Each structure stands twice: as structure tokens, then as C-alpha cells.
Amino acid sequence: MKYLAILVAVLAIMLGIYYYLEPDQVRGWLRDTKLVTAPETTRLYKWQDKQGSWHVGDAPPPAGTSFEVRDYRSDENILPLPPQLKKDD
């Protein structure tokens, strides 16, 4: 039993090292399984009415109105960084 615990610990350490060295490879393996699900997305519509006001919402605009569609993932930040967090180039 003691040897089994040591074997499991060594395998876990080896997997951790491999993940550290090749994270994209491991993520590719996990993406093909049901262990990892894709992040949720939100679809937004952006359009301008006849008065010039901009509208953004999850419902499409009235028929005949040109609009822009944006899909946002739940794991992404869409807000700009505040000035104090921006790096000087």
C-alpha cells in the first residue's frame, strides 16, 4: 500500500511538471473530453436609430436596421484598463 501511494505521488508530480512545460498540449487533450466545457458566450447587438442614438442589447434591432453583432466570452474582460494600471510603452 505504501508503494502504491508513492507511485501515485510520483505520477502526480510528473504530470504537474509536464503541464508546467507543455500547458497548451495538456489543454488540447482536455478540450476533447467532457471534463472541460467551453466558456459561455453572450451575443450583443449594436445599432443606431434614426435620431442618432446608439443602442446595445441582447435583442436584435428592428427589421431593416443595420447592426453589428458581438459575441463575448464569459472569461474575457471587455472593459478598458484604468489609467493607473496601463503600462507605459
Strand order of the largest sheet: 2-1-3
Per DSSP E runs of 2 or more residues, the count of β-strands stands at 3
Strand percentage lies at: 15-25%
Percent helix, as a range, is 25-40%
Gross morphology: elongated
> How large is the radius of gyration?
23 Å
Distance between termini?
57 Å
Domains counted in the coordinates: how many? Answer: 2
What does this structure look like?
The protein is of the alpha+beta class. It has 2 domains: 2-31; 41-73, no CATH class. Helix content is 33%, strand content 21%. The chain has helices spanning 2-21, 23-31, and strands at 41-48, 54-57, 67-73. A hairpin with a 5-residue loop joins strand 1 (41-48) and strand 2 (54-57). Helix 1 (2-21) packs across helix 2 (23-31). The protein is elongated. The termini are far apart.
Please outline the helices and strands.
Elements: H1 2-21, H2 23-31, E1 41-48, E2 54-57, E3 67-73
State the gist of this model.
The protein is an alpha+beta fold and 89 residues long. It is 33% helix and 21% strand.
Q: Main traits of this protein?
A:
2 helices
